[in-house]
Write the structure tokens for this entry.
Amino acid sequence: MPWSNQGGGPWGSGPPKGPWGSGPQSSGPTPPDLEELLRRSQDKLRKVLPGGNLGGKGFALIALAAVALWGFSGFFRVEPDELGVVLRFGKYVRDAKPGLSYHLPYPVESVEIPKVTRVNRIDIGMRVVEDARRGSTMRDVPEESLMLTGDENIVDVDFSVFWLVKPDGASNFLFNIQNPEGTVKAVAESAMREVIGRSEIQPILTGARQTIETAVHELMQKVLDSYGSGIQVTQVQMQKVDPPQQVIDSFRDVQAARADLERAQNEARTYANRVVPDARGRAAQVTQSAEAYREQTVAEARGQASRFSQVFDQYRKAPAITRQRMYLETMERVLGGTDKIILDSGGSGGSGVVPYLPLNELTRRAPPPAPPSQQSVPTQQRQSGGTR
């Protein structure tokens, strides 16, 4: 039986079918019919336009509306923390201040609006991990924080960098660097490693943080300015500076030993500053006392020598009288402060004791009465003095 040219094969007429009764199926959605779409658009436009007919006046209204919409598309708004950068065919033309501004509609001009007053923060050596149960926690990133010092020690440094876009550098920020955050992070890590590599570990762990932060800040700004990045670094803040976790206990022991050494040295200096001036003062006192004693002894010796010379001159003038005078003065000096008893060895009768009347004591004023416990001794002395 011959095949029919209109039938589509031995299994009947219609679209080609297979031996199981179904033809090949299309593998994707059917593309829309453009003529049907245009027909529907014309029908809707006829309903909108007056008279239901699209003439020259209708096309003019449509064109005018399209031009108005195209012209109004050039208005844009710049927020207070933003700065508008107007581009004409992709080339920088001007900056737009905060507020409502206008540029020629696309594709003639376009605008980029970056945040220029917002302070951005980048953490290096650590990451903030959000946990629903524990909240925000810090995770250490050792591949960023471990650095080699100038004396070949390893230190773990976590720090943060704060930066913003320069007021006059928005265009450089947009077109000179492709990834601003990545650039700032790479420059910050490089600058910190360079500064740490020039320093020793002891000042880094103790009191050189401010110096290191200032040095890193200046080096970062210099590098970013050489890139023409339009970025201003406001602050570099070191968060944690410790030895590596594996040896932190040993480093703390060394630090404690050095602190004890410094404390002992300070105590020794304090003791020396207290004892040495005291010893020098005592030495000066002894020296001055010796010099005073020397001056006194020499002056007394000179006085006695002068007195002897004067007595000797008088002695040569009248030897007998001078001897008698010297004898009487010596006896007066020796016997003046002692109790005296006069004995007469030439008397034939009696005990040989001559009564002695102390006239000089009678002329003295009577002393005030003494307490009863102290009256016995003076009474005995007066009794012994009255029996001379």
Q: What stands out?
A: Residues 1-29, 374-388 have pLDDT under 50 and may be disordered. The two ends are 197 Å apart (CA to CA). The first strand starts at residue 75 and ends at 78. The longest helix spans residues 248-317.
